Amino acid sequence: MEVKREGLLLFSAGAINQFPKTTAKGSNFRNNEKGCKRQQPFAAICQRLVLMAGRNRMTRHTDNFRGPIPVPHPVAIEEELELQRRDIQRLLAENRHVIDDNVMLQRDLTAVKDEIHRLNQVIPKMHADKEAHRRELIERGLKLESELRSTEPLRAEVVQLRSEVQKLNTQRQDLSSQVQNLTKDINRMQGENKQVAAMKTDVDKLRKELVDVRRVFEYEKKGNEELVEQNRSVETNLISMAREIEKLRAEQASADRRLMGVGGYGMLNGSPETRYPGPYGDVYGAGPWGSYDRHGPPRH
């Protein structure tokens, strides 16, 4: 048992001596203050290994035990040593990772300190700029407020203009509706104008026909006037002839009166009571005036 503990102590000391004296970055680990702080876990590891070597082992002077102490099997010792060696290698690897992390953290800390120093220099300037910007905004707000107060009299005009704009909008809507109606009327009138063009052609044709008819009418009118003149001349001739006939009859009557003694009473004036016709026959009727006395002169 004492031999096993001594072997473990020697192994632990050899493992410590086998630990690299320098870090991955080339700095002296044991001479460095931070590296000295990192040596404390290894001493604890060695103590832990010694305790593990004596774990589950009986002391020399156990109660109610007489006889020689049994010697452990070499295979068990080798297995335990192998396990301890693996633990040591694992711890060494973890230590290396911790050292690398420490170096990275130191670098990050230095960068953070530099950033903090830079920010400490920039922050006052930012505060000054912010204060200047705030003052500028305050001055601008005061200026805008004064301008707003100066524009208060214009509010009534703005309200009036808005009402006028609304009225103009309503008028515009009315005018747009009227324009639509007028466009409809224009389209309708254009269609009617197309019809009027056709009607105009018809009217022109009718006008030409009317001119032709009027020409014919004037021609016939002139012909009728000539006929009327001829009728009038014939009528005047007939009247003159009737007067001459009447005159002749009067002369005949006077001649008949003179011949009263020779003829009879019934021969007077060609009376219808006589049994003989008048001296001129029945050309103008039985009476002395004939048809002229009854119907006047003949008309054509």
From TrEMBL:
The keyword Coiled coil applies. Residues 158-258 form a coiled coil. GO terms for biological process: cell differentiation; flower development. SUPFAM superfamilies: Myosin rod fragments. InterPro entries: FLX/FLX-like. Keywords: Coiled coil, Developmental protein, Differentiation, Flowering. The keyword Coiled coil applies. PANTHER family: OS08G0430100 PROTEIN (PTHR33405:SF19), PROTEIN FLX-LIKE 2 (PTHR33405). Belongs to the FLX family. This is Protein FLX-like 3. It comes from Buddleja alternifolia.
